[in-house]
Specification:
Shape: globular
CATH topology: TIM Barrel
Largest sheet: 8 strands, parallel
Number of strands: 8
Order of helices and strands: EHEHEHHEHEHHEHEHHHE
Oligomer: single chain
CATH class: Alpha Beta
Helix content: 25-40%
CATH superfamily: Glycoside hydrolase/deacetylase
Strand content: 5-15%
Distance between the termini: 46 Å
Radius of gyration: 19 Å
Number of helices: 11
Number of domains: 1
Structural class: alpha/beta
């Protein structure tokens, strides 16, 4: 009988978002459990990405496409439907509202996304995968634009859409019920997950088998060692994806994000060797996106 194989990509979101995030992510990568990173390219801190690429050539580096928060790459006059009077993106609440009403110009979206991909490639990055800041790329118009641009750019690896809700304790059915009571939006998002996954596959986009959702548990579960220790032995076979957000507070983070305190807690967790020990004990192998796309393990001189 074939033994079960459990592999997990732990991806740190937000390199390039702030210099504090950069410092934190570089620190956690030294400890080996986090082996993948997604990069925000529209902020000045992205200029430090060559440091990461040189220091950690085994880490997969993807693009964290963004049309909702902060400054764009393009001049605001070229993407007027995407920005406000201050020349920046409209912010998450307004982005969601306009996207659901299909009030954006798809052509402008694609123009900005192409510029973001070009920016990361100009910095010498071989882009391993693509995903979206705050998962906004799953909203209708953004999904269409980002999928078309990804295929056009040859980015064939994406973020798993199907969630696996993980719980540290209690009967699973009871915990799921409590999860849906606390997060009723999951009932809506999960109803469209199969459709979006099929769209990815038809477009030739490879994704991990599932996305580990620790937010189903108690507040701050993602940064709690005991939650990870309880969950890792019971994750499904196959290739999973978990998202983390290590970071240190700075002016940019305080201006653009409400996710601050938990980032520092995640730094402490992922800088320890605790998770690597737990994973080894329960047969979970930390991997990069090369586990999804073996060509990423081949040597590369970077992208022009």
């Amino acid at each position: 009988m074939r033994s079960s194989v459990k592999r997990l990509i732990v991806n740190a979101d937000g390199f390039g978002f702030t210099f504090g995030n950069n410092r934190a992510i570089l620190e956690v990568l030294e400890h080996g459990f986090v082996r993948s990173v997604s990069v925000n390219v529209t902020w000045p801190a992205v200029k430090e990405i060559p440091t990461l690429v040189r220091a950690f050539p085994h880490v997969s580096v993807g693009i964290h496409v963004n049309l909702s928060v902060g400054p764009p790459i393009l001049p605001p006059a070229e993407i007027p439907s995407l920005v406000g009077p201050d020349g920046e993106f409209l912010g998450a609440p307004e982005f969601r509202r306009r996207s659901l009403r299909r009030q954006f110009d798809i052509g402008e979206m694609k123009h900005e996304l192409r510029s973001q991909i070009a920016r990361l490639r100009d910095l010498g990055v071989r882009i391993s995968h693509w995903d979206g800041h705050q998962d906004m790329h799953l909203y209708p118009q953004f999904f269409q634009a980002s999928l078309e641009v990804a295929v056009e750019a040859g980015l064939r690896n994406g973020r798993a859409i199907r969630r696996y809700h993980a719980f540290a304790e209690g009967p699973r059915w009871m915990r799921l019920l409590a999860c849906y009571v606390r997060h009723p939006r999951y009932l809506i998002t999960e109803s469209v997950e199969p459709f979006l996954t099929r769209r990815y596959r038809r477009a030739g986009i490879r994704v991990p088998d599932y996305r580990l959702n620790l937010k189903s548990g108690p507040p701050g579960a993602e940064a709690q060692p005991q939650v990870w220790a309880a969950v890792l032995p019971h994750i499904p076979d196959g290739l999973g994806l978990a998202i983390c957000h290590p970071g240190y507070s700075d002016e940019t983070l305080r201006q653009y994000s409400t996710l601050i305190a938990s980032r520092v807690q995640e730094v402490a967790l992922f800088k320890s060797d605790f998770l690597s020990r737990v994973a080894a004990e329960c047969g979970v192998e930390p991997v990069s996106y090369a586990a999804l796309d073996p060509s990423l393990a081949e040597p590369s001189g970077g992208e022009a």
